[in-house]
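LAB NOTEBOOK - FOLDING QUEUE
OPERATOR: T.R.
BATCH SIZE: 2
PURPOSE: Compare the predicted structure-token outputs for two unrelated chains run back to back under identical settings.
PRIORITY: normal
REVIEWER: second-year student, initials M.K.

ITEM 1
FIELD SEQUENCE / FIELD STRUCTURE:
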Amino acid sequence: IRDQEYLPFLNHDTLLRKGILIIENLYLEELPNYVNKALLIAVPSLRLKLRGRRASYTICAMPCRALMIYPPPTRESLFKDLEEIKDLLSIIAAPKG
């Protein structure tokens, strides 16, 4: 955690009450047990909820290898969702005209 950048967020009562932690550059094996159901986000980020899906995804604009999705999807549905997200982002990023 970058204390200087994220300290205002970490001290924000609303975020803490909702179980939102701001963590950067961790591997899933390094996560402590108490964050197993937390939504891990990096700032700035874009949160996507695919139509008809319960899970939501956070896409980070800075390096962040530790993202947890709640509720946890099956392996097959995760890969399907990631392909759909990739397609959506390629449409958004495509040059206009």
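ITEM 2
FIELD SEQUENCE / FIELD STRUCTURE:
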Amino acid sequence: NLNEDIRKDHFPLPFMDQMLERLAGNEYYCFLDGFSGYFQIPIGPKDQEKTTFTCPYGTFAYKHMLFGLCNAPRTFQRCMMAIFHDMIEKTMEVFMDDFSVFGNSFSTCLTNLENMLKRCKDTKLGLIWEKSHFMVKEGIVLGHKT
């Protein structure tokens, strides 16, 4: 079992109550959903062999992080924090592949969204447009109403 041999990552996930507190009271929000989050994170070439599996069509190894790895959630959150480090808590919040952009005015929220989308483009981070909501006055974040 691969998970038994993996050194555990103790990177902290954000505290939901603190995130919700920072989101509260803004006039406008944009809620975006990441596309196949884990699969956007490459596995280092020397570690790919550890994910090898065999099926009737041959032997294969994953090139991107897969669901089920014990460190996948924390690795993904660490990547999101690194990508958006200068925006988190100021203009947006990130919990795994759920992105919340906010602003006290329409124009501020729009500027914050533009900056976030530029960062996604620059880092080739995919989003699911059909599951995203733009320039709304309220919404549901991690099961809680803003």
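REVIEWER COMMENT (ITEM 2): The helical segments are 2-5, 16-23, 45-48, 72-83, 106-123.
FOLLOW-UP: none requested
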